[in-house]
Amino acid sequence: MAKKAKAQSLLRSTTEAVGEVLPGVSKRRDWSLEEKLRILAQGTAPGSSPALTCRMNGNSSGQFYTWRKQFRSGTLTGFMPISMGSEVAALPTPAPVEAQPATLIAGHVEVELPNGVKLRVRSDVDAAALRQIPSALR
Questions:
Q1: What separation in angstroms does the CA of 79 have from each of 31, 38, 41, 52, 54?
Q2: Which of 42, 99, 107, 113 could join 117 via S-S bond, C-beta 3.0 to 4.6 A?
Q3: Are strands 103-105 and 108-112 parallel, antiparallel or unpaired?
Q4: For a pLDDT cut of 70, what percent of the chain falls above it?
Q5: What band does 39 get if pLDDT is binned at 50, 70 and 90?
Q6: Per-residue pLDDT at 67
Q7: Which residues lie below 8 Å from residue 39, measured CB to CB, with a gap of 6+?
Q8: Do residues 33 and 71 touch, judged by C-beta distance below 8 A?
Q9: CA proximity to 118, closest of 126, 105, 36
Q10: Tens-place pLDDT, residues 75-108
Q11: 119 strand-pairing partners
């Protein structure tokens, strides 16, 4: 209880800061898109460093790297940077592979698929279950 009373007496004895809030005045700097792009170009130029560029322009390196990330993703300008490459040659079409014929072994059916998988099924397997096997192997 003594702590609470002491805190209240401190609050009463503290002088209030008197000031006026001016509309439109902000401590944050509002960078235009042109300024951001100029600073990014200056900071990524050969022989330049982002830290030196930030010191010269009065912004933080964290802000510089945020702008760079926004530029690369396209959110800063609304455009996504692209680069054109040479045409990719068409891939050759694979040669058709013939499936091995089914082999009957005393009440069993064996099928070898083109990828080398061998499927052995007993002759008493339900036809509906047998139809589900190929879709499960894909």
A1: 19, 17, 16, 27, 24
A2: 113
A3: antiparallel
A4: 65
A5: very high
A6: 93
A7: 31, 53, 54, 57, 59, 64, 67
A8: no
A9: 105
A10: 888 776 667 777 766 767 766 666 566 555 566 7
A11: 111
How far is it, in rounded angstroms, from Cα 48 to Cα 62? 17
- Do the bridges between strand 118-122 and strand 103-105 make them parallel or antiparallel, or are there none, so unpaired? unpaired
Its pTM surpasses 0.90: no
Find the mean pLDDT for residues 13-21. Answer: 59
Mean pLDDT of the chain: 76
Residues sharing a CB contact under 8 Å with residue 104, sequence separation 6 or more, in sequence order: 110
CA distances, 37 to each of 26, 29, 102 (Å): 23, 16, 68
**C-alpha 131: how far from its chain's center?**
41
The residues, ordered by sequence, that sit 6+ positions from 54 with a Cβ below 8 Å of its Cβ are 39, 43, 60, 61, 63, 64
Checking DSSP bridges between strand 118-122 and strand 108-112, what pairing results, if any? Answer: antiparallel
**H or E stretch covering 118:** strand 118-122
